[in-house]
């Protein structure tokens, strides 16, 4: 059933039609209409937007195209019409409605099968949405997870290898006498991430983690400290114990600033950008996880906060970050920790970065308090400092791969650290660097290849003598996507002189290196 447009209803309801007023002139219907229907009310010289029926006439013209007037371009809206004239006008509009209705019916009939499919899909989607809404535990939080099975072993190479493998040098090993860690073994790592947003612009991060790598060659208890498995280190808890490894909140402050703070946040969570695209979720040794700048990017973990300023520079972005992380900041005893105390084991960093779609370069300065763990390196580097240190880093990447699949993503970074003159081990300066190349989906979709080389952090100079602490590392991986959620990654690693200048003291010989192999099977959900 169709409703008559308002203008037609008004015409029919008019009490002053000619049929009821015989004294009014009765002109032929043909003289009332122009030859064609008008397409715009502007064609009438006597219709104005201020007229009370203007909107109704406009709808008749635009929706139905059934308004006509007199040949002299007038509408004469105040003139009464006969019932015959009203009938002619109504008939003209009904013809248009009928024409539109027939066309719509034809289209509905022609596309009936397609419309049925669409209706069915909509019903399925509505059912899925209803199911999802009934089982979801939160409308603001997304749960994701990653499980890794890690199978592998290390092999000691060189003249001192047998001394370490046999256990004869256990008392000298840097894993507190735990002994050699060169047996083939299987471990796991589990991560559960709860990512929450309340406004769409803020971000609450909660990460739960568990594993059993404390006695693994690729974990914290390794006999060769530069062979820590980067993705899991530092473990932060006992084996097979689920613990909170991240808890922080990030939110925008105006148009150009962002604030991040939390009771358990890592240094890289607080930065405006991370100057590296080399993946660190697979087995690798040493440097890439620190972007080559150990000390400056020490990945300190604890209570912390940062503020990031973001400013457009042409097509690029300039980001400035100031941050503070206190490793012992959860303690209320100032002799043991706290925030902004002399025992906080804190890091304060300033990062300046410039980035674009294809490249990123960042410089960083970090001031480290005594007692703060400063990242992977030789045993001499890892000895606790009794005085503050200052570390500097420069790193970045360029995506050559965007131009051609056979070109790599290039990553590079270097770091430098200076010690105070009263350092308990007479250390003066330390350095580190790395270069990494990766080829995503090089041979086939989901098959990635990458390699990295460099030097783990080593002491370059001592106050009392020259240092012979340097060594090198190399790793190579091949990642294969079995499905969208399952990947297998074999990797090999090699670290020369992981004990640095302590090589002879620890192994009894001057030559010692570590060769490692790992097969990682990863499941994400």
Provide structural commentary.
- This protein is α+β, with helices and mostly antiparallel strands.
- Among the domains are: 107 residues, no CATH class; 243 residues, Beta Barrel (Porin).
- 17% of the residues lie in helices and 35% in strands.
- It has 8 helices and 16 strands.
- It has a 16-stranded antiparallel beta barrel with strand order 1-2-3-4-5-6-7-8-9-10-11-12-13-14-15-16.
- β4 and β5 form a beta hairpin.
- The radius of gyration is 38 Å and the shape is elongated.
- The two termini are 54 Å apart.
- The N terminus is likely disordered.
List the helices and strands and how they pair.
Elements: H1 6-12, H2 54-64, H3 83-110, H4 112-135, E1 141-157, H5 161-165, E2 185-196, E3 203-211, E4 243-253, E5 257-266, H6 267-270, E6 301-313, E7 316-326, E8 346-355, E9 359-368, H7 379-382, E10 389-399, E11 409-419, E12 427-439, E13 447-462, E14 473-481, E15 486-496, H8 503-507, E16 513-524
Antiparallel strand pairs: 1-2, 1-16, 2-3, 3-4, 4-5, 5-6, 6-7, 7-8, 8-9, 9-10, 10-11, 11-12, 12-13, 13-14, 14-15, 15-16
Number of strands: 16
Poorly predicted runs are: 1-35
Rounded radius of gyration (Å) = 38 Å
Number of helices: 8
- Helix share, percent: 10-25%
Structural class: alpha+beta
Query: H/E series, N to C?
Result: HHHHEHEEEEHEEEEHEEEEEEHE
CATH T-level topology of the domain at 153-183 and 267-299 and 346-524: Porin
Overall spatial form: elongated
How are the strands of the biggest sheet laid out side by side?
Answer: 1-2-3-4-5-6-7-8-9-10-11-12-13-14-15-16
Strand content: 35-45%
CATH class of the domain at 153-183 and 267-299 and 346-524: Mainly Beta
CATH A-level architecture of the domain at 153-183 and 267-299 and 346-524: Beta Barrel
Distance separating the two termini: 54 Å
User: Can you summarize the main beta sheet?
Assistant: 16 strands, antiparallel, barrel
The average pLDDT score comes to 84
